[in-house]
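Handout, tutorial session.
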Amino acid sequence: MTVDSGDVSVLLVRGTERRLATLRVVGRDPYRLRLEGMGQLKESTGPDLFEALVALRRDLETDGWLPAVQGARRDAYPSGMARDMGGGERIHLLHTGRPASTADLVDTLAPVADVGLLATVAQQHEAYVAWLESLARKESEEKSQACRSRRFPFDV
């Protein structure tokens, strides 16, 4: 789903339960999301689309629901540039030990087919921190390897 798509059906997941809801971006400064479904209306705001989605997810999580969108995946997180320059409308799919690239960008509100990839806000943040740590470990290992492979004049 792109931000300008209008009303879009979104799958909500709670364990084995599935419900459809309608999601709409109703504002951009700040970003506002409106979710209608299950006889309820939920709204959230944020300085970017990702933060508005996080606020909506926290509200849904109180009842155990997760929205099946790319921005709710355990392995997804926006870069600072995606947030600052793109309003968090696109998000990176993260890979352990590998820096994020433009090839990894997906629409934040695009649907997720595999609901096993979904996570709570806290789980997503933990996965993001683990990804950052994996980058630091890889960089440290590469520096260590470079030092071991250097030959110095006094090496025999």
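The second record follows below. Compare its token runs with those of the first.
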Amino acid sequence: MNEPIYHHYVSAGYLRGFAKSGKHYVVHCVDLDAKKGFPQNVKKVAGEDHFNRLDGHPDPNILETTYANELEGPSLSALKRVLECGNFSNALDREAVLLLFSLFATRNPRDRQSFAESVQPLNQILIISALGQDGLKSPGAAAALEMNTSKHASLDAEYYWRYSSMPTR
């Protein structure tokens, strides 16, 4: 099985709805810094290599494959049904579409960095309250603080607390 490399912030399936079809689905993109527009295949828009990769996890692509199979696929099907009937009267479809849009709104580098920056001071407070001021010098605390500066702060912290020798929550 091929490992997914390019991980989208906004799913390629959703982007195809805005694309010109043909041999490839192409959308018009704009580079705001260069102030230039250009056509781009949806396979290479709104994402980056290994964005959802969980380094150190037994299956480093579990987050990407779960997003694709468990959330995006069913939600895109729900969106198609909503567009066909023209309303949100089906509660399950409405919830699936809103969940998909929520994921798009929060799954991006800027929000990930902002979350990591807000979690680190909270993590320091928790370590001090559990272990005292000297606890910040422990190897476990150093590892936890380092994880909270990574691109997967919340997932890394959860993984750390679940599998470390530190007391659990």
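Points raised in discussion: The chain has a mean pLDDT of 79.
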